Amino acid sequence: MDERQSHMLLALRQITENVSAQSSLDEAIALLTVSIRKATGADCCSLYLIDGFKKYLKLAATDGLSKNAVGKARLRLGEGLVGSVGQRQELLDLADAPSDPKFKYLPEVGEDEFFSFLGVPIINQGELLGVLVIQSKERKQFGPVEESFLVTLSAQIASIIAVSRSEKDTDTDSLRSYKGEQGTGGIAIARCVVWQPEVQLTDVTLQHTQDPEVQQELFHQIMFQLQTEMDLNALHLSENGKKDAAFGYMSGYGSLLDDTTFQDDVDTEIMANGYTAASAVKTVAERRLSELLSDEDHDRYLDLRDFAEIIISRLMNFTTRAPDLKEDVVLAVRNLPAALVAELRHYKVCGFISMENASNSHTAILARDLGIPSVSGLHFDINTLNGHEVIVDGMNSEVLVDPSESVLSEYRQLVTLGREQEDLFSKEKFKKGVTLDGVRVQIELNAGLSHEEMTDLPEQTDGVGLYRTEISFMLCKSFPNEQQQCDWYKGVLRQFKGLTVTMRTLDVGGDKSLSYLPIEEANPALGWRGVRITIDQPQILKTQLRAMLLAHAEYGNLQIMVPMVSRISEVVTVKKLLMTALKEIEEQTGRQIPCPKFGVMLEVPSVVYLMDEILSMVDFVSIGSNDLMQYLLAVDRGNRKVTRFFEPFHPAVVRCLKYLCDKASEKGVPIAVCGEIAGSPLTALMLLSLGYTELSMNYSELSRVGYTVRRVSIADLRKVGQQALKLCHSEDIRKLYVDYAAPLGLERVVVPAGSKYVPAGD
Ligand code: PEP
Ligand code: MG
């Protein structure tokens, strides 16, 4: 390495360190341009950043061009040398830039004196963020040392810029857009109301009291009041058919309110140490919070912090009561506290923004259950939202603040389109899935909790294709006993009497945890999960199988399915246990009970190569495409950074699905798909084209998929499927199905307006 190269290497490290230490993006990029110019000896260095709509590259910082042009000078993608580097995402090193046909003269930037030009794209996770340029007055190419310096530097600063931009306004116009970590539902547009506890733990200074009895009494009164309000609200949610929301909120906060040791500790701080009630709550809460922090129990940490702040707010005579609002609002919260849930009916909430992102956050549970668009996991000052007009785009996990009239009207159109479509679908919600050429497609429901209040639900489906039993387990404080489980299962079998209900045995581990079965693993997706756990804990599996069989004895419409099977011995073991349980129940009841159909989920790639053996042992199979894709493509299904690689049209996925369908049909074993790809119209078309005729999905997707199925022909789709199997790029395969759907008037159904599809480009 020559001296120049080692000088550059050293500079590279220093620049990256200095830039990442800056507290704002503006400071970081200003420093960046100055440092790069110095290190390379160029006469000018400039950084252009892409705007929120990915149309323009705007001059964001410069050392050498006119400072007045910063934030103003812009080039369309593809326009000029900078636009060309951005569009082609390729480096450009020119000795005489002005003579290049692509050169575009911008009078305001003052680059008349520069000839040489070296531009490199800044790309983060496949997405163009900007273009970095150095220029010099001399007519000479910069050459390989500068090229590799800029390329390396741009790769290193890409993630710094990406993080800062997600936290900061991405557009110098009035619109601010923020990308969240998680989104649910469609689009909401309204004025934003920020709610946060009036007092935060850090605001409370510790004080002593002369009257400990009074403080103690005050504390217990507040606790009682809070408990009553929460119970009332849970009841209110349940009465309105929002059982899941009620459960979600109760499970997090109920345990805190019921925790007598918390109350005992606060009593001790008041009575023994002489603290005021607010100081005592702060002391106890902070002690517990530091334990939770070291346990890395984020969800519980947020619950406890909010809970303590609300008690303190009330103790200090602040009310958490929200104003009665007549108009729709988007509610922004740091984390949604249960006490606010108690107040929700005072609001007309049409959208949620939650700054923090607890994995089982109440905001997400509530929003999903109430069908309200939401975005969570945002990193900026929540107070900047209060009173501002916002767009919550749950589909793209985005929040837009102070949108211009033109942006607003675009989104309003999307809302109207979405509503019109929903009306269109729901008009046909009781129609069966029969294609134009008369092929019957079974459209089934994925469920996890009882939907007994929806009495017409069975008429909208062909049965339950996946009943996730673990959801009920998650809402308990310890393993439910046989009777408790039997009651749940009977409820479901009763509601769907006459239709088949496919119940999955307990599927925990991985991303689904039970508080009473903690599993600490470095790599949970590949760890102790699904059937591996239930085989290792046969008493849990046996109790569940017995409860299912007792329910089946009464209604006769159960199928049992085993998750995460990866080896033949697992099928043998569970089947054996099922037979033992059946015999026991028969002896116990003195009745002969028909054995429920027994099947396994195909979601681990190893079973693809065991199909002959597995098919000879089961009555049916069902593809868990969420996990199958996760393992086949080596893409963590819950990691946002790699979402774009979680690609259902990946040729390997398509070919694998075809193979599984053909194998099962050859042996005459029914095969269904119950992962998310069954519930999206475009991927459902792909499944139909490969031979699948049994699809199971969430409730909100039933009518949309049914609508699609009734407007397509299996014979035509089979031809599309044949073409798809010959292609080797996801985007080409996806396009085949969009092109098939468009002339049938289904384009907006298969590609909903406003969805920002980003292909991985395999
Ligand atoms: C799947 O993996 O596709 C599936 C249906 O199971 P879950 O999403 O519950 O893991
Ligand atoms: Mg799965």
Description:
The structure is a single chain. The protein is of the alpha/beta class and 762 residues long. The protein folds into four domains: 3-170, 2-Layer Sandwich (Beta-Lactamase), CATH 3.30.450; 177-194 and 322-420, Glucose Oxidase, domain 1 (3-Layer(bba) Sandwich), CATH 3.50.30; 198-315, PtsI, HPr-binding domain (Enzyme I, Chain A, domain 2); 463-615, TIM Barrel. Helices cover 45% and strands 15% of the residues. It is built from 25 helices and 22 strands. The strands form three sheets. It has an eight-stranded mixed beta sheet. Helix 17 links the parallel strand 18 and strand 19 (597-602). Helix 1 (3-21) packs antiparallel against helix 2. The model is unreliable at 168-173 (pLDDT under 50). Bound molecules: phosphoenolpyruvate (PEP) and magnesium ion. Residues 466, 468, 507, 603, 624-627, 674-675 line the site of phosphoenolpyruvate.
Secondary structure elements and pairings:
Elements: H1 3-21, H2 25-40, E1 44-50, E2 56-63, E3 74-76, H3 80-88, E4 92-94, E5 116-124, E6 127-136, H4 144-167, E7 176-179, E8 182-184, E9 187-195, H5 212-239, H6 243-258, H7 260-271, H8 277-295, H9 298-315, E10 328-333, H10 338-341, E11 348-354, H11 362-370, E12 374-376, E13 389-393, E14 398-401, H12 405-427, E15 442-447, E16 464-468, H13 470-474, H14 482-495, E17 501-504, H15 531-536, H16 538-555, E18 558-562, H17 568-589, E19 597-602, H18 611-615, E20 620-623, H19 625-633, H20 651-667, E21 671-673, H21 681-690, E22 694-697, H22 699-709, H23 714-724, H24 730-741, H25 747-750
Parallel strand pairs: 9-10, 10-11, 11-12, 15-16, 15-22, 16-17, 17-18, 18-19, 19-20, 20-21
Antiparallel strand pairs: 1-2, 1-6, 2-3, 4-5, 5-6, 7-14, 8-12, 9-13, 13-14
The chain binds phosphoenolpyruvate and magnesium ion (MG).
